[in-house]
Automatic annotation (TrEMBL):
Phylogenetic placement of the source organism: Bacteria, Deltaproteobacteria, Candidatus Desulfacyla
Protein name: DUF4338 domain-containing protein
Pfam families the record matches: DruA
Superkingdom assignment: Bacteria
Length: 103
């Protein structure tokens, strides 16, 4: 799938540019565009996200200005769990409240 994207710099006051709209990028809608944007413009490029994930594209009017994603956290991560102060029981109870920023 080919995408033509306006890459002219955007400048000015956000109030004058218009509102930013977030759209879910899933298989049926915008996932191919999200993959393309990340592949072309993210310094780490594109890698397939595994497991549970959410992908969004931010638009100003019909122009994409950001590609965002979050994925499920690691089940166990000693440094994170220690920093938060979780016991094994607390981690199991509250892990569903964490998301990793993926891109």
């Amino acid at each position: 799938m080919s995408h033509t994207i306006n890459t002219e710099p955007i400048g000015g006051d956000l109030k004058k540019l218009g509102s930013v709209t977030l759209k879910l990028a899933n298989v049926q809608t915008l996932e191919a565009l999200w993959d393309h944007l990340v592949s072309q413009y993210h310094y780490l490029s594109y890698r397939k996200l595994l497991g549970h994930r959410l992908k969004y594209i931010a638009f100003i009017k019909d122009r994409p200005v950001a590609a965002l994603s979050w994925s499920a956290p690691s089940l166990k991560l000693r440094v994170r769990d220690y920093f938060i102060g979780w016991s094994d029981k607390q981690r199991k109870t509250h892990l569903n409240r964490i998301a990793n920023n993926s891109r």
